[in-house]
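To: structure desk
From: M.T.
Subject: fold request, one chain
Message: Could you run this one when you get a chance? Sequence is below, nothing fancy, just the single chain.
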Amino acid sequence: MAVQLLLVGQLAGIEDFLLSEPGAAERAAAGEALQHSLAGRCYWVTLLTEIIPRALLAELGLPRILLGTSGGGQFLLVLPGDAGEPAREFLRRAARGVAERSGGRLQLLWGATENLGDWSVVRRRIQDEFERQRSEARALDPSVFEPREEAQPEGDAYFPELSRALWDAETVGCTAEDPAHIVAGGGQHAWPIAPGKGPDTIVFARHAAPNEDGHAPADPSTLAGRAEGRPMWGVLRGDADNFRIRMRRAQTIEEHVQLSILYRQFFAGELEVLCSQPEFWRKVTILYTGSDDFAVYGAWDALVPLAREMQRLFHRFSEENLKEFPGPEGKTISMAVALADRPDRTLRSVYQEAGRLLDAARAADKDCLYFLGRTLEWKQLADAAELKETLVRLVGDSASSHHALHELSRLYRKGASGPAPEAELLDRPWRFQRRLNRALAGLREREVQKLRPHLASELSGRGAAQVRLRPAGLVALEWARLTVEVQ
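Reply: Done. Structure tokens follow.
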């Protein structure tokens, strides 16, 4: 029986590359170029682990069926034994191209081993090969401990141009000499990315909200203008909880491939379809979808509804596809929303903040969302959404609506961190009620009488002797303020 090789590839340093400073040409262009720079980098990273393994098979004349899984920053191939050295030479060229275009921040690692023994043993051998390559890269660079200027990616106009070209491209490709140079609509080897174009179509989520003339993606300021209430945009990032633990528990290579494909197709397929729905298609743009995560940016008012819908779909996906796998790992999802609270915020900085907030939320809990200063479970978010609708209906377009919401927000600030005399306002329920009545003074009397008891119970706990303000209430208040205030 001929020896089979398992070849696994992986990109290391993705976040560092995406958050690196833009090049001189991008900074000079500023504005729209900076938006396209991050989008182009995200697209490039997303497509690298789709294009490189396919190009390797095409270059060696091997059938597509040998591709086990691809995308999301990694790939797996099953190769005949005599293809080992040609495959390694091809990957060396690809790794050089990846390093040059990323300014040395992104590294293509690969490991090849015989398909013998238990999958856990095979996986350990591949991980050892990854570590060896990392060690060699550090050892061969004598200047690694010396201060130096930050390297810039080669040809910093490449990523903005790639972002624009992928707007309406039907194929993507590359050349055998430089597999890391992805070309939209051409290349020596090319594959379709438009749905329904063939069995070898690459699953690539690239929905972008169109600008006013419909011929290019809308920039963040345009998306902010499409928001209800305050014109503001933001970034939503999501990540499956403990996905790596779930993958490490795979018992066989078949199970590993099955899980990889399931997650990859869920995030790429479901998000693309969801963003094309009427309530989202003009308001949100996809930055990337990975093996267990995603990122989008758009009008602030569309991000939380999108997050709730993604959580609902992921819950259904877990129930249908992961019920045979024991344990909760990889079956829940956490997200975070970061808002561009100043006109000078860049897409890169808000994306970075969303990642920081997501890490903070996952450190505190799992299966949750960070939004407007609080980490909420999904059920708490549903309560906050309902309370927000109550507040918006209560204040309506009243002249005193801004004052009422501001006064309600002060309940939280004084109750949580105010000086002792003001904090005592929350020590007794009747004082809370008096403060609530004062905040609602001036609103429509009939609506107030109908909704005030419900509002009081939703803002506070049910304690008889002391009022405890609920964190979902503050999120609902700030959410309502953003909805009704236009500035």
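Reply (cont.): Residues 168 and 216 are 9 Å apart (CA to CA). Let me know if you need anything else for the meeting.
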